[in-house]
Structure formats: structure tokens, C-alpha cells
Amino acid sequence: MSRYAEQTQNQLVELEASHDRMKKLTASMDKIVKTLQEGNAQLRKSSGETNRRLNLVFEEQYHSKRDRDCLD
């Protein structure tokens, strides 16, 4: 095998190994993105629930104060 052919073969082997590493990295990144998206959805849901609860507490306190002020 000529030196050029050997270098070309070595480069091909390195390229294939690099490609395999990139595929694994991409798969890992896809898992991370999916996890982040799921976490984000859960945060949005819990944030919405928290906002609803806070609004209920505010409304309750507002009406309670308003009712007390009306009695005065």
C-alpha cells in the first residue's frame, strides 16, 4: 500500500470514528433537550397552578378587607 493510500485510509478511519462520536453526542444532546422541554412544561404547569392559587388568596383577602371596610 502506498504512503498516500495509507494516509487516506487512516483519515477515513478517523473520520468514521469522529462521525460515531458525533452521533453519540447528538443522541445525548437530544436526550438533554427532551428533558429540558419536559421540565419546562412542568414548570409552566406548576407556575400556572401557583398563579391561580395566589389569585384566589388575593381575591379572598381583597373581598375580606372590602367587607370589613364596609362594616366600619
From TrEMBL:
Name under which the protein is recorded: Uncharacterized protein
